[in-house]
Amino acid sequence: MRHALAEAAQAALTGDVPVGAVLLGPDGSLLATGHNEREATGDPTAHAEVLAIRRAAAALGEWRLSGCTLVVTLEPCTMCAGALVQSRIGRVVYGARDEKAGAAGSLWDVVRDRRLNHRPEVVAGVLEEACSAQLTAFFRAL
Ligand SMILES: [Zn+2]
């Protein structure tokens, strides 16, 4: 999560909301990282999680991320939760909860919806205070 926080700090350099993600292989090795690049690239789908998923899949040479873990500083939104289910990822670890738009336990729980055919394990609230503080500081400075 500390690596994800450092990745999130990169997003703020381009005026992007500081959200960072790291994607680990089944053996715990680092496959990919990502941070929000919506402002940097003008791409509405350029969330940290989506970028990390795309890069990890490219690194592995396949779309299935079975057994992999995504660590992200903010609870995934509906788009990212959908992408995580589509990638068949094994585990999602996040820091700050997003009561307004979170789709991994707060507003929705897309990743653990029993109607879907894949449900990753979810670990919430890791380094939650540090993750929340980083976001709060960004929005306060606007
Ligand atoms: Zn998202």
From TrEMBL:
It is an enzyme of class 3 (hydrolase). SUPFAM superfamilies: Cytidine deaminase-like (SSF53927). Its EC number is 3.5.4.33. PROSITE patterns: CYT_DCMP_DEAMINASES_1, CYT_DCMP_DEAMINASES_2. Pfam families: dCMP_cyt_deam_1. Gene3D superfamilies: Cytidine Deaminase, domain 2. GO terms for molecular function: tRNA-specific adenosine-34 deaminase activity; zinc ion binding. Its cofactor is Zn(2+). The active site is at 49 (proton donor). The keyword Hydrolase applies. The keyword Zinc-finger does not apply. One of its GO terms (biological process) is tRNA wobble adenosine to inosine editing. Binds 1 zinc ion per subunit. Keywords: Hydrolase, Metal-binding, tRNA processing, Zinc. Residues 1-107 form the CMP/dCMP-type deaminase domain. Belongs to the cytidine and deoxycytidylate deaminase family. ADAT2 subfamily. Catalyzes the deamination of adenosine to inosine at the wobble position 34 of tRNA(Arg2). Homodimer. This is tRNA-specific adenosine deaminase. The gene is tadA.
